[in-house]
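W.,

You were right to be curious about this one. When I first looked at the sequence I had no strong expectations either way, so I just let the prediction run and decided to look at it fresh. Below is the sequence, 304 residues in total, followed by the output.
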Amino acid sequence: MVEKFINDKLTSTKDFEDLYPFESRFMNINGHDLHYIDEGNGKPVIMVHGNPTWSFYYRHLIQTLSPDFRTIVPDHIGCGFSDKPGTEAYDYTLESRVKDLDTLIDHLNINEKISLILHDWGGMIGLAWAVDHIDRIDKIIITNTAGFFLPKEKQFPFLLWIIKYTRIFSVPAVLGLNVFAKGALYLCSKTKLPPNVKKGLIEPYNSWKNRIATLKFVQDIPISKKDQSYAIVDHVDQHLKQLDDASLLFLWGAKDFVFDLAFLNEFRRRFPQAATHVFHDAGHYLFEDKPEETARLIEIFLNK
């Protein structure tokens, strides 16, 4: 069982340890401990989570793939069991996330080509690393995310707009009431999540201080050229074409209220020959809604 003091508040897996039976590892990046799972042996597969999830979201895939692959799953700084520093100590931006991922990969001394499994903000983080390390990429599984700006037919979701631009609402709602992480339990999954799964998904965000990343991720979404992360998203957008259709697998929950089929269609426009599977009765938390089906498809794809 993992027990770690985070900002003077104890976070424990005791209520869901049977779902998350993995050894915790930590590495220090610029004074902050980054938590990650490193299970199994074989070709490396790195899973990059989004907001407000953490490595817990990939628990089914870790268990399925670790007998044959080296499964590496970090918690971004501010998420999961990683440290949760204040904004004066850590820059909660896309650039920082990509640098952290690169630092972890270097720390692990991975010499083989790497496969990535990406979801939500983890998609942009992982793709930003991938387009600058094409020679180190084996395969990429992309689920309910983006590697480009909003498709032309899409508008920025109103709920995210409120969080990004209205501090008078976002600070007390996201940091105080935890509405982002708690709301995701009901908006992002199309199945009824068991109590211990709900507990696992939101447990790291158990205090005002521990919810800083869930707010900063949304505030960092680039909408205009004035936004700090605009240049990195533009770089990814322009360089996605370096990826090979044969190296990509798209798995999509069609009932995602943010990353809906418009995002998948944009990916398919760019990679028309890539393998694709749409789950029409699944939502944003695809691996919660379809754990066995997605794990099987991913395992087959990685073994090709």
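Here's what jumped out at me. Confidence is low (pLDDT under 50) at residues 5-10. And, maybe more interesting for your project: The longest helix spans residues 94-107.

Coffee later to discuss?

I.
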